[in-house]
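Can't attach files on this board, so I'm pasting raw text. These are the components:
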Amino acid sequence: MNVLRLLVVGTLLHIKQISRSPFEIAITLIVPIVQATLAVYLFRAGGEQHRLLEAAVGAGVMGVWSSVLFGSGGAIQGQRWMGTLEMIMLAPRRPVLVILPITIATGLTGIYALLATLVWGRFLYGIRLDFAHPAAFVVASVVCVIALGMFGLLLAATFVLMRNANALANTLEYPVWLVSGMLVPITVLPSWTGPIAAILPTTWGARALREATSGGPVWPSVGICLGISLLCLALGGLALTHVERRARAAATLALA
Amino acid sequence: MKTLRLMTVGGVIAYRALFNWTTPGMFVGTLLVGPLFQLLFFAYLGRQLQVADDRFYIVGNAVLTASLACVFGGTMAVANERRFGTLGHVLLSPRSRTAIFWGRVLPYAGNGLLIAVVTLSVGAALLGLRIPLDAVPGLFLAMAAGSLACGFFGLTLGALGLRFRDVWVVSNVSVALLLLLTGVNVPAGNLPGWMVTVGHYLPITHAAEAARRLAAGDGLAAAAPALGQELLVGAGYAVAAVVLLKIFEVESRRRASLDAL
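---
Top answer:
Structure tokens for the assembled complex are below.
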């Protein structure tokens, strides 16, 4: 129960913190809407009017990924710059329990992108929100966001070991959008991308949301997404413990 | 000659000091690999939706990739001076502000051109697009015009950094809007009229059009009007940047807010 409380309170704290940043608000507010507009016009131009809802959902998931990638990727570095990393690492809890709320908060902030693209599509382009499985869509959205938060933990732990983590974050945005089939179906990509797509939780999260939107077996995708993300959580937890011990031993915790 | 030296040497020094992405890892990851995947993303999306052919997406997106270095570079050229507390020293210089700041655009435009050339070459090789050999000089010209216009556009956004606290919001949103409004990814005929009109006043729109004509083998004469329009747009932003920098400088001095972050 204490662990759950720590996660919930920590997540709320970090959501509040992110929501006070004019930069985060503006970027989360505007960029996904621009991407959704682009997707709507592209799908219309391609004569795929019946897939506009799918396009809006896809653009929304792209926004969630961007939020997790840049938010979680820089989670530890951000704490370092604010001078709060030592304090949270001093907490008598495992590192994974104090960093996980940050990465889940970035995923939850990113869910705004999903909501914004749907509202934008509904009111500006008259896209009817006729989900094939409305209840499953809600569940899949929540699972997708939490799963990406867990994936974000692995990113946070990995990125902290790299000097040029920002470069990797900047590089990974489009490849994951592409390979995960968020807007482009995986079937049109070269076959060698298949195995990469299969191990990414983003692929299964996007697939679950697409199936909930346009029909298909939602729950297997939700299950696989959650399973891969739990694996990411375990790996991220191990990596974080390793990073923390190494940083304490070398006295480099606060050094960028 | 002295002005030319100020523009080139000053520009290069400012580029090395203020551009955040000059380390090899950052340069390759952010400016070469990222844009290439952007091209692939839209090329595959275009293939799947059958909106336009590969040439449309490869050439258009290759020209657009220059915007990343140019828009963010132009912003960094002014905003990072303020961040590092050196803006006052620059403005104390007895030399022409216009020469100082226009000179800063040149390395970013060169950087943008390099990115566009690499993206076009690799993108065309990966997706199997054949470009006529005699179109290469013209394509280089179109990408250079687009990069230069984008650099001045970035400088205009950077000038806003003297007035607004968080100019990075403006840069990020601008880069996203260029994807939509320049007609690089959605053919102009499929966009609403007002978006097309706005696009005409943005960098890249005309350069991408010229580059597509050249890649289609239409020749330099056919691409010349679009190239001229791109240069005109760039000149407009060059003047706008200098005017805004002057206005905001005067205002910052009056309000004693030059270095206030």
